[in-house]
Amino acid sequence: MSNDIYSTYHLYPPPQLSEIKTTVVYPATEKHLQKYLRQDAYLICETGEDYKNITLPFIQSQSFSIQWVYNILEKKAEADRIIHENPDSSNGFILIPDFKWNQKQLDDLYLIAICHRRGIKSLRDLTAEHLPLLRNILQEGKEAILKRFGVAGSQLRIYLHYQPSYFHLHVHFTALSYDAPGCSVERAHLLSDVIDNLELDPQYYQKRTLTFALRADEALLKKFQEAGKA
Amino acid sequence: MSNDIYSTYHLYPPPQLSEIKTTVVYPATEKHLQKYLRQDAYLICETGEDYKNITLPFIQSQSFSIQWVYNILEKKAEADRIIHENPDSSNGFILIPDFKWNQKQLDDLYLIAICHRRGIKSLRDLTAEHLPLLRNILQEGKEAILKRFGVAGSQLRIYLHYQPSYFHLHVHFTALSYDAPGCSVERAHLLSDVIDNLELDPQYYQKRTLTFALRADEALLKKFQEAGKA
Q1: Would residue B214 count as lying in a domain?
Q2: Is the Cβ pair A41, B156 closer than 8 Å?
Q3: Domain count, chain B
Q4: Is B84 a catalytic residue?
Q5: pLDDT, average across residues B66-91
Q6: Residue A47 is part of which domain span?
Q7: A43 to B193: CB separation less than 8 angstroms, yes or no
């Protein structure tokens, strides 16, 4: 059974695997149940203005707890699972296996890099200022995975989610051969593309229209509908 | 059994479906067999220069036949399957159900828009000059699918592949709820993003590094390896 403070990890769409795996979410709240029920999804085209007027106020109005992230960063939890750490408070991060990966085979390799710096909620907050952090994650993350698991960078899909599952910047590392949940074009953004875009325009992610899917029951969808944008 | 001139349609990775479907490829060449065998894949980061020096000469050296595409555009084949046509020779296109979709249910809706204009090999050839064509495909494609199948644009994933399966510009329309093959971030490019990028920089796709996966047996991988780029 999973500790509820990690429930965010377990709330991803269930992965499609050739062997049956189960994830026990306990205690399961109404929100967990809704997440697992199949529902219609709608594509949202969020402009920079939509983010400021709709999404950001919504995020701020919610009490999303990310204490479990801080517990990892402060070594109060999961310290024995850390694969790599760059301890720099501005440009450092912790690399840790995702809970969906049992580490027994490389087919569904899945790790997460969590940045030390606080307050970067998502892709939308990134500017050229964050390039050293992002380059560290890309370079050191690949090196650490090669060293520990023998998987080369050319066999890794390295990306951010937008919308993310939790609002503290993190980067996904999955095996390229693994059809990982959330790696489709309407949710995943390759870290190498993010770096190139910020080099092209430091305000790229403040201005750019970002497209993502929301399920019919998600409160953010209602906000977009109320604003006449969905 | 499929006609060999359409084999390109059938050479996609087989879709993951809850019901069993089969695609018979006959006659099956060595190339077909290789495509269906599970193989390691490698991520290539193709710069604009790499495209000019490695990929473009490779494409030009191959005798990829796209006569089957011209047959559709000239109504010599498939004319009864056309869902929508804009006949303009510069900015028009034909919208047709993909062969992987049997049209019996909307869960795995899959259509292809094929542009009338010849000589646009892929995303790499697109410039601001092609914006009217791309906007027509986005707008009219959504309208036609709503009218014929009752599926709204907000429930469609509309994207290009890079690398594509064949070198005549085409756009994929799949149901958002369908985990379609080839919609992951390392292959799919949302049409709305492509339009935004060309509006931002008319030469975006000539200059930009594009990331894609190649299987171990693909001849293009060998070309990148020989150039010391993979």
Answers
A1: yes
A2: no
A3: 1
A4: no
A5: 96
A6: 4-226
A7: no
